[in-house]
Design brief:
With 176 residues, the chain is an all-alpha fold. It is built from eight helices and no strands. It has two domains: 30 residues, no CATH class; 139 residues, Tetracycline Repressor, domain 2 (Orthogonal Bundle), CATH 1.10.357.
Amino acid sequence: MLRDHGLESFSLRALAKAAGFSPAALYEYFDNKAAIVDAVQDLVDVELSTALREAAESEPPGRRRVTAVLLRYLAYAKENREEFLVLFSRLGSKAQSLQDSPHQPFQVLMAAVKDAEAEGDLRIRDGMPLEGVTYGLWAAAHGMAMLQATYLQTFEADFDLVDKWMLIDFLRGLRP
C-alpha cells in the first residue's frame, strides 16, 4: 500500500480491507496507525541495511567499499522511493547520539569507513571522530537521495553518474 499510494494515503481502514480484517481487528496486533508505520520503518531499516551489507561485501576494504555502500544507498532510495521516504521522513531517531545509533544503515557505513581507515586508504583528520566522518558521508548521500526522491523527482538528469563522481571526489579528500 505504501509503495502504491505513499504514506499520505495510508489508512487503517484501507489496510484492514486489503488484509481481510476489520479495522478493529488490527488493534489486536498494533496499538494504532503509528505502531504500524513504526513496524514498517523497522522492516525497511533491515532491508536497506541488508542491501548495504551486500554492497560492502562486494568490495575489499577501502574507499571503493565506502563508495559502493553510498551508491547502494542511493540506488535503494531510487528503487524503493516510498519505503525510503517512510523510513526517513516520519520519525526521528531513537538514539541520543551517533555513537549509540541503532540505525543499521549508519552502522554498516561506519564499519566500511573504519575498515578503509584501518587499511590506510582513508585518513580521518586528527580530532575528528569516526562517527563524524561517517555522518558527513551519510549526509551527502542522504541529501542526494532525498532531493531526487522529492524536489527533483521529475528532473531528467543522469543522477547516477553525478552522484558517483561527487562521492568519489568527496572521498578523494579523505585519502592519506
